[in-house]
C-alpha cells in the first residue's frame, strides 16, 4: 500500500469525526455568545412589522448590526416558528457552505479531491478557532467564506458576471469582502462590479421599504459600528484601547499597516499573469489581513477568510512556505487558551493579542518575502512579465 493511500486511510476517519464533533456536539451545545439569537429575533420582528433596530447597544451582548439588506436576505429564518430548528438549520447551512468552499478551493488549486489532501484540509480547517467558533456562535461567516472562495474561483475561470453575483450576495449581508473588489479593478474587469452592486442595492431597497425603523440603522447602528470597542476586538484600535495605548500611536500603527498592505499588493502584481491563482489567493489574504487590523472591529473568527492564502503553500512560488507564516497561522487559527495561573499578566496578554500578532506577522512575512525576492533575484527566480488576457 502506498504512502498517500495509507494517509488517506488514517486521515479520513479523523476528519469525519472532527466535523461530526464540531457540528453535533460543539455547535449544538452552543455558547454564552450566541450570534444567531439576535438574527432570529430581528428577522421575527422584521416579518411582524416591528422595529428591528431598537435594542440597547450599551451592553456587551451580541447586537444585531446587519443592514436592512441583510435583514431581508436572512428573513427566511424568521419564518421558522421553532427557534432550535432554525438554529440547527443555520448551523447545517454554514457547515455545508464551509465544506463546499473547501471543495472549490481544491479545484482552484488543482488538488485531487480523491487524494489524502481532501481529509488533510478538512481536518485542519475544522480544527481552527475560526470554523469552530463560527459554528458554535452560529454566525453567518461560513456562508461568507463560500462567497469569497466562489468569487476567487469564478474570477479565475473568467465567469465575471457570476463572480459579481458571489460577492454581491455576501455584500448584501455584510461588507466584509468589499475590499476584494480590488482584484477585478486591477485587471480592469468591470462585469463583477455590476452584479456586485446590483444585488445589495436591490436587497437594500427591499429591506429598507419593509423595515419600519430603517432610519434607525443609519442614525444609531452605523454610528455604533464606527466606534472602537474594547472587548472581543482584535483590531489594532481595539487592542490599543483595551491596553490604554495613546491614540496617536494607534493611528501611526494603522497608517503603517495600510502602507504595508498597499506595498504588498503592488509587489504582488508581477504574479498576476504567470501565477494567477497564487496572485488571487495571496492578494485576497493580504488585503483582508490589513482590513482586520485597521478596522474598528476585528474578530478572530474572521480569519476563516485567510484559509485561501495559507493553502497557497501547495503552489510553486508560494509566499507562505516558511515558518513565520505558519507561526502567524497558529496565532489567528489556534483554539489554544493562553491565560495562565502562574504568569497571569503575560498569559492574558497573549490570549488577547495572539490574533492581532498573527495577522501582523502574516502581513509582514509576505511583504518581507516579496521584498527579498525583488531585491536579490539571484536567490529566487524572478517572475517574468507576460501578456495575459484580462
TrEMBL record:
InterPro entries: GT87. It is found in: Cell membrane. The keyword Transmembrane helix applies. GO terms for cellular component: plasma membrane. The keyword Transferase applies. Keywords: Cell membrane, Membrane, Transferase, Transmembrane, Transmembrane helix. It comes from the Bacteria. It is a multi-pass membrane protein. One of its GO terms (molecular function) is hexosyltransferase activity. Pfam families: GT87. The chain crosses the membrane at residues 6-25, 86-109, 121-154, 160-186, 193-211, 249-269, 276-294, 352-372. Belongs to the glycosyltransferase 87 family. This is Arabinofuranosyl transferase. It comes from Dietzia lutea.
